[in-house]
Hints:
The termini are far apart. The model is unreliable at 1-15 (pLDDT under 50). Helix 5 links the parallel strand 4 and strand 5 (116-119). The chain is of the alpha/beta class. Strands 2-1-3-4-5 form a 5-stranded parallel β-sheet, with helices on both faces. The protein has helices at residues 2-7, 27-38, 52-58, 78-88, 103-112, 124-135, 143-155, 168-178, 183-190, 194-208, 213-222, and strands at residues 18-23, 43-49, 66-69, 93-98, 116-119. The chain folds into 2 domains: 2-142, 3-Layer(aba) Sandwich (Rossmann fold), CATH 3.40.50; 156-222, Winged helix-like DNA-binding domain superfamily/Winged helix DNA-binding domain (Arc Repressor Mutant, subunit A). Helix 5 (103-112) crosses helix 11 and helix 8 crosses helix 11.
Amino acid sequence: MLDTILNNPKMETKSELIKVAIIEDRREIREGLSVMINFTDGFSCVGSYRSMEDALHRIAHNLPDVILSDIGLPGMDGIEGVKILKEKYPQILILMLSVYDDNERIFDALCAGACGYLLKKTPPAQLMESLRDAVSGGAPMSPEIARKVVTLFRDFRPPERVEYDLTPHELRLLKLLVEGHSYKTAALELSVSVNTISFHLKSIYEKLQVHSKSEAVAKALKNHLIK
């Protein structure tokens, strides 16, 4: 087996795979996503569930790096499920994959802890790239969703006083994260190193009393921190 791996540079070792789980009630979509993930280099589908209850019951047997979750599920909906999953497994990234594009569901999903929001019409290649982006620290969103998020911020009235003492530079970085930038693209946008981004993120997390990028984005949305 070792000789096979060494002689075939395209073959992925198990530790290098991005492990993905799917929560989707429609069988044809669930099975199609599973096949696409398993036949894409660098990915492995480690769980496929038709309901949030099923996922919560069985997902601990093989925890994924990232979850693709529908919102309109039988029983518990995807947004409520995200809250529970993030409480139990804060390290897992969750991407919503939905037909819904209304502001309320987008807002609620991001505030619940989702790291991104994709529409089901997303092309397969873009969907796989979004999974890579999420694992790399990004917040992938379909273009239509990203525009709605920007509009949400534009329509929100900012608080009269910022209570978290974020510096102008920290607020610019937080805005980039909300817009879906990864650490690398945020560093390019601000003309600084990735290490500098990491340094400022630690400060942002401390001031907002959060532990992850998705929590910081959710708090920024909830408290209208971005103008």
